[in-house]
Amino acid sequence: MTLIQKVPPHSLALELSERIRHRIQSAEFTDGDFFLTEAELAEEYQVSRRIAREAVNRLCALGLLEGRKRKGLIVRHPDPVEVWANCLPSLARSQEKLAELASFRYALEVGAVELAIKNASEAQIEALAELAEQFKQIARQKKDRPRRIGIEREFHGLILEMSGVPLIADMQKLLATLFETSYPTRKSPMLDDDVNERIIWQHFELVSAIQDRDVERARSVMRAHLKYLLMPEREID
Fold first, then answer.
1. Is Transmembrane helix among the key words of this record (predicted)?
2. Segment 146-169, tens digit of pLDDT
């Protein structure tokens, strides 16, 4: 005797959301085009209104659909950075996910160096050198930690802007802000003299490598500069 197993409702909703997502992405919808109503989706795919609503809610959460009262659903082309910005606070609650994001930030910044060197303008390189000088002055004073963090963020942000890919620069800004707000005392180099001087040297060395269009040297310095992101917590505290 064979037992008939019912498919859980959440599985039906997930399957339906995937079918709708594929339909949206394979068709030539433009942002703001009207799609269908929940009732029409339920009828077309032969599911209950509850299943259709759950599937639609999943796609709305991803930014692919937007509900309009008395009009139905419209198609959206979500901004990936905005989607990430909405997801990151939840990820920040998990130490395991934070460690994965730290590795992602490391790979993003080290990987973007080649594009930065290829596309950096002389004006951008001069601005980077000025930020390195500002960091040196503030780091040696050991007083204004928020300003020190701000200059460091600007320095890295400018390198990512040099890549010429706005998505890369925007993702780096999100991740940098996340780590500053999630655990400001962890994943952040100590403020003793040796560390300060090493970071100061690394900043100027990065500027020099970019000026010389030396990809391998820039990558090597960036890897050393960001290696704290890959360290276990016990090695940093």
1. no
2. 898 899 999 999 999 999 999 999
